[in-house]
User: What shape does this take?
Amino acid sequence: MTLTARPAWKALEAHCAAVGATHLRTLFADDPDRGERLRSEAAGLYVDYSKQRVTDETLRLLRALADECQLRHRIDAMWRGDKINTSEKRAVLHVALRAPRGSSIELDGENVVPNVHDVLDRMGTFARGVRDGSWKGHTGARIKNVVNIGIGGSDLGPVMAYEALRWYANRDLTLRFVSNVDGTDFVEATRDLDPRETLFIISSKTFTTLETMTNAQSARAWALNILKDQSAIARHFVAVSTNAAEVAKFGIDTENMFGFWDWVGGRYSMDSAIGLSTMLAIGPEHFRELLDGFHMMDEHFHTAPFENNLPVILGLLTIWNCNFLGAATVAVLPYAQYLKRFPAYLQQLTMESNGKHVTLDGASIAYETSPIIWGEPGTNGQHSFYQLIHQGTRIVPCDFIAFSKSLNPIGNHQELLMANVFAQTEALAFGKMADQVKAEGTPDWLVPHRVFEGNRPTTTILADQLTPATLGALIALYEHSVFTQGVIWGIDSFDQWGVELGKALAQQIAKELGAADTTATTHDSSTNALMRRYRNAR
Ligand code: F6P
Assistant: This one.
């Protein structure tokens, strides 16, 4: 049955027509305790969704929709190792990456958890060696710089986690991240580094990605330019990949390779060996705490009733906002400078997962799927795009993320930061009416400009402090929320066919740009003209 024909969907449509426009002012006035009730807590995260435009009936109908879409069954299928990534015929078992030692998650009858821990142990030994100086560079110099080369899931997670957990990082190590095929990225990241003290981590699930392989070749040339000796590669390059054959072909000894598996999607891989840079920065013990945080949220998602299951609630609220209230985007607003790359990380997690136009069985979809994710840390965004969120013509549901205790408590910064979180969510929900504005003595002509309609939906996620464990829980919360949304939409959240066309065309065009015959006219008139202009200018 198509999603829009389901009884719960139809009931939600009728419900939305009846109460969807009810103002949050009314919802709070009629139900003064809703702020105490529409909230839930798990794995150290307190989530207040009372400022979403929902009633108890909305939530009941959304859960009914989840039941009709067999969410429980699909969660179980994921944990069972079923090939729920149907278009790629793969299991989806990132939850096994953080399963505790001694536990069991099976794929085709084999427990994969021991393999996960073997790799974690090898990563731990390597990371300790680099951190304590016993792993030396080719000339005997200590490694002081680590450069992760990767893109997409092999970059965004590592960068985000490094920035997020910088407070816990070993400051004697300089971490850099190179992703873009624009040579500027590599040149600027390495210009002040000494190859004798630099370790490259080539991170690529496939080990065939154009950007990563191009940067890896440049890194090798850069290193050999000083180190001269091919055998130096073994001390300065390690690989993280599922593709041992390509790693060996590149010239990295597979002894220096940390593996993962095809059941880990790129955007779900930051807690696999792809997290090697994170482990080098924060150490194996903190990395373990990160995994424990993920695991706590996994357990909650796997076992908690949907009524208080945080990823399920957040996923269903996204369905409500996007498919019924008509929101096209979600703003992610961390009030924590350390989370500055979190919105970028969530862009790939969400949009590469759920930006899909067909169902699992290939039928066209006639409803909206993934919202567009964007955001910046607060309070910076307040002085930039919040104007639109407060007074624009579009609904932009926002996720506010905050931590009660600062890792850097100076002066009254933290109090001011938190005051802004609470002020923004209150202002967005309740706004400011014309009579209030007038009562302040505003001239009539100015009143409309100073009115805030309010009724702008927000969720607030509050944790005590930014720790490796809270970060893990936070990421897992979003991972499972994305899965929940995908189940409702009936799509494959774990493939990414939409990146293929551009990749293939770029390969073709690169060949043409390099060809001796510069008159190629195989494309449309716009592309041909742009290519001509580029050739003439280069
Ligand atoms: O092009 C998209 C993509 O395949 C992402 O899904 C992935 O995270 C990224 O490229 C990098 O892939 P790899 O780790 O194989 O280099």
